[in-house]
Amino acid sequence: MRKFLVIFLALIVIFSFAKTKLTFWGFMMNDEHAKKVLEKFMAENPDIEVEYVQLSWSNGFDKIVTAIAGGEDLDVVELGNTWVANFAERKALENMDNFYKTYGNNYVGWDTVYYEGSYWAVPWLLGTRALFYNLDLFDKAGLDPENPPKTWEELYNAAKDIDSLGEDIYGFGMPAGENYSPWQQWFLPAVWGTGGDIISEDGKRALLTSCKVNETAKFYKALSKYSLKTKQADLAKAFGEGKIGMYVSGAWDIDYLETNYPELPFNVVFIPKPASWYGTHASFAGAEVLAIMKHSKHKKEAQKLVEFLIKPDIAMEVAMIWPAIFPSHVDAGKDPWFEDHPMHKVFYEQNAYAKPVPPIPAWPKVQAVLTEAIEKIILEDADVDSVLFEYNMKIQKILDGE
């Protein structure tokens, strides 16, 4: 009897101190940052232990796919918002509709995690693009640095004037020669700015031959005549060297330019809209989102972790690791940090006009075709109507599952 009592008491001690172990796979935090943030969570939740695994953007998607296929235990995973539809289609994500009902009004970016009538993740950190412009080149071209372009026409005219300053000077920087930036930085957002899209809302029809896409493509081709067309990183370097008047990029280039080209006079403004009376300052909505995996055995604890990570102060602490993305909480812009970082504040406010890619599982294939079409127009001087017709059929075949 005594032996049984000792064993019984030992079991009580073991179970009273047992902790639920969560796995959290992410991209934004390295091991050092994750330890600092997650120690706070574990101090508030002593019955939960979190194991963090850092992924890289080069192979993170494939690692998650492999883990799911192999039945590996995953609880919370940070995803890029363009992946949500793909993983939701695989039935790998827990439905977050109830989470949205509780927190929806306090956070923005929910359209980045919406697919087929439900929410499949929680917007955590939002990033977008804005227009960088060189104050000196504006002044030399007879333009007003205090009145940067607000419309396509104003941007086109400014690019033309700056481009005329010399052989090594370009009015605009247009990304080319890589997978994402040709459509992401401005072409597709420019389409969105007209109120158009390249895929129908139900995800079944390709719309490259629509009037609004055609309008955008012809403007883009005209602008390309006064543009340096190369990889995004090379555009940033050329801008820093004073060779480009304007280009579209993310907030990460603020720190890059200030560090590497401290004498460069530049500013950041909203992306121009089609006309003063028409369209919006649309930009690409990038987002780091938090998903609870469908087969997690600890969904209650996983939700606690998500609730902790999206708190404005915690999210801001993570965002400051690399200030190119900002918390999704509606009051994040009130953080005192923005008072000393007005250009970063532009990006935070630009998020109000940002839009995510169409929520379709086939988007990775579609974006590759879209990039090819854009580069054919701006690099090969191909006929816009012919290119849009040809690539509209290619995208339609992808949508049809061919």
Descriptive report:
This is ABC transporter substrate-binding protein. It comes from Thermosipho melanesiensis. This protein is of the alpha/beta class and 402 residues long. It has 2 domains: 2-128 and 285-355, Periplasmic binding protein-like II (D-Maltodextrin-Binding Protein, domain 2, 3-Layer(aba) Sandwich), CATH 3.40.190; 135-283 and 360-399, D-Maltodextrin-Binding Protein, domain 2 (3-Layer(aba) Sandwich). 44% of the residues lie in helices and 17% in strands. It is built from 16 helices and 15 strands. It has helices at residues 2-17, 31-44, 60-69, 84-89, 97-103, 135-140, 152-163, 181-193, 211-224, 232-240, 252-260, 299-309, 312-319, 342-350, 363-379, 384-399, and strands at residues 20-26, 48-54, 76-80, 114-115, 118-119, 122-127, 130-134, 170-175, 227-230, 244-249, 266-269, 283-284, 286-292, 326-327, 354-355. A 6-stranded mixed beta sheet has the order 2-1-3-13-6-14. Helix 2 links the parallel strand 1 and strand 2 (48-54). The protein starts with a helix and ends with a helix.
